[in-house]
Write a structure and sequence with these properties.
The protein is mainly alpha-helical. It has a domain at 27-52. Helices cover 63% and strands 0% of the residues. The chain is built from 2 helices and no strands.
């Protein structure tokens, strides 16, 4: 039980196949890139909704 719990905690930050989100960022630059991506996707969704 303890070993399984420990292994699960080690895999919390590992990338998953077909994952939908980014991994946790390890640097401020990656946090900025992720924030830029989120902003672009937000405005892209608004534009797509407006056009369709």
């Amino acid at each position: 039980m303890f070993l399984q719990n420990f292994i699960n905690k080690l895999q919390l930050d590992a990338p998953q196949p077909w994952g939908l989100f980014f991994q946790d960022s390890a640097s401020p630059q990656m946090e900025g890139i992720e924030e830029l991506h989120n902003n672009i996707m937000f405005y892209l969704a608004i534009i797509m909704f407006t056009v369709t």
